[in-house]
């Protein structure tokens, strides 16, 4: 499903799906517009309290020696990496430019990544760092960035290597494009869930990401996708929520990991297997969200996808 140019991993994926299906629970969380009625909000809060013990199921033991390597490596096949995103709005300008932190959702709450929107940028530009206290572009902890187009509807995720103009002729030290995110204009206007497409580099037969080092934007993930040049690329989409008549809202099954309704709640899947959740993201408190990701995503890709959902997209909502 994720391997480009071969189908060796299909059986593995099937085995993983069987395991996933066995562990499913009936807990649900709604994905709705943020302007829910007070009655609905109270019901949802009650749901959150009831399912809290089940919802905080810890991440499986995940250990690593090198943080930089870990956050760029695809998740181990068969393992769901359970994380938590917290948003810090404290301070002079953090209302406009909050800092976001990604931790493993386990007892130790191991720090993984931090991200913050850059000031004075013509388009939305988020720096991603492996040090929560160093969010500078020139710092040695800079690991990647998320950049949007002028409309705020398309995003590209880069690693920390050099711009193609400054790279060697063979492009060996040029930056890689790790993902692209497209928010489709909502034909229903202000109503209904958002639709998103995620394009990531494909995987080789060893389960490693195929490097994508475009020489220019005309050869990047967004243009390749636009031209339907999908060689060595994987297209993922958010799972379409089901309309629930009882709650008058759109519903996704987050298996207890999400407890509050929000337009930001989403699950990412591959068209070939809607039951294999590649990533899910959703609200558990005002400034706290769970983020779970699986192969073929890495932590930087998943965190950047989540950051894109925080950005204001007037054309999409």
UniProtKB/TrEMBL annotation:
<dbReference type="Pfam" id="PF01167">
    <property type="entry name" value="Tub"/>
</dbReference>
<dbReference type="InterPro" id="IPR018066">
    <property type="entry name" value="Tubby_C_CS"/>
</dbReference>
<dbReference type="InterPro" id="IPR000007">
    <property type="entry name" value="Tubby_C"/>
</dbReference>
<dbReference type="GO" id="GO:0061512">
    <property type="term" value="P:protein localization to cilium"/>
</dbReference>
<feature type="domain" description="Tubby C-terminal">
    <location>
        <begin position="72"/>
        <end position="311"/>
    </location>
</feature>
<comment type="similarity">
    <text>Belongs to the TUB family.</text>
</comment>
<feature type="compositionally biased region" description="Basic and acidic residues">
    <location>
        <begin position="7"/>
        <end position="18"/>
    </location>
</feature>
<dbReference type="GO" id="GO:0005929">
    <property type="term" value="C:cilium"/>
</dbReference>
<dbReference type="InterPro" id="IPR025659">
    <property type="entry name" value="Tubby-like_C"/>
</dbReference>
<protein>
    <submittedName>
        <fullName>TUB like protein 1b</fullName>
    </submittedName>
</protein>
<dbReference type="GO" id="GO:0051015">
    <property type="term" value="F:actin filament binding"/>
</dbReference>
<keyword id="KW-0963">Cytoplasm</keyword>
<feature type="region of interest" description="Disordered">
    <location>
        <begin position="1"/>
        <end position="64"/>
    </location>
</feature>
<feature type="compositionally biased region" description="Basic residues">
    <location>
        <begin position="41"/>
        <end position="51"/>
    </location>
</feature>
<dbReference type="GO" id="GO:0005737">
    <property type="term" value="C:cytoplasm"/>
</dbReference>
């Amino acid at each position: 499903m994720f391997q480009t140019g071969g189908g060796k991993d299909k059986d593995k994926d099937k085995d993983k799906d069987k395991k996933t299906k066995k562990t499913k629970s009936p807990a649900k969380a709604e994905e709705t517009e943020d302007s829910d009625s007070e009655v609905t909000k109270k019901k949802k809060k009650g749901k959150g309290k009831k399912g809290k013990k089940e919802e905080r199921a810890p991440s499986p033991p995940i250990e690593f020696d090198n943080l930089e390597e870990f956050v760029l490596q695809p998740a181990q096949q068969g393992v769901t990496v359970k994380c938590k995103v917290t948003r810090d709005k404290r301070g002079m300008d953090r209302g406009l430019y909050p800092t976001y932190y990604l931790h493993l959702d386990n007892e130790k709450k191991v720090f993984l990544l931090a991200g913050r929107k850059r000031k004075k940028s013509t388009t939305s530009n988020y720096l991603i760092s492996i040090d929560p206290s160093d969010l500078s572009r020139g710092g040695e902890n800079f690991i990647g960035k998320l950049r949007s187009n002028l409309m705020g509807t398309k995003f590209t995720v880069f690693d920390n290597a050099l711009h193609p103009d400054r790279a060697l002729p063979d492009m060996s030290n040029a930056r890689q494009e790790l993902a692209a995110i497209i928010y489709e204009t909502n034909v229903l206007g202000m109503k209904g869930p958002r639709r998103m497409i995620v394009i990531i580099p494909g995987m080789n037969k060893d389960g490693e990401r195929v490097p994508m080092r475009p020489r220019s934007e005309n050869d990047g993930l967004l243009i390749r996708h636009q031209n339907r040049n999908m060689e060595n690329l994987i297209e993922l989409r958010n799972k379409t929520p089901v309309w629930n008549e009882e709650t008058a809202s759109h519903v996704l099954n987050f298996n207890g990991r999400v407890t509050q309704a929000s337009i930001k709640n989403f699950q990412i899947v591959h068209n070939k297997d809607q039951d294999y959740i590649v990533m899910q993201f959703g609200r558990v408190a005002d400034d706290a969200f769970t983020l779970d990701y699986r192969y073929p995503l890495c932590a930087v890709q998943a965190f950047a996808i989540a950051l894109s959902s925080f950005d204001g997209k007037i054309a999409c909502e």
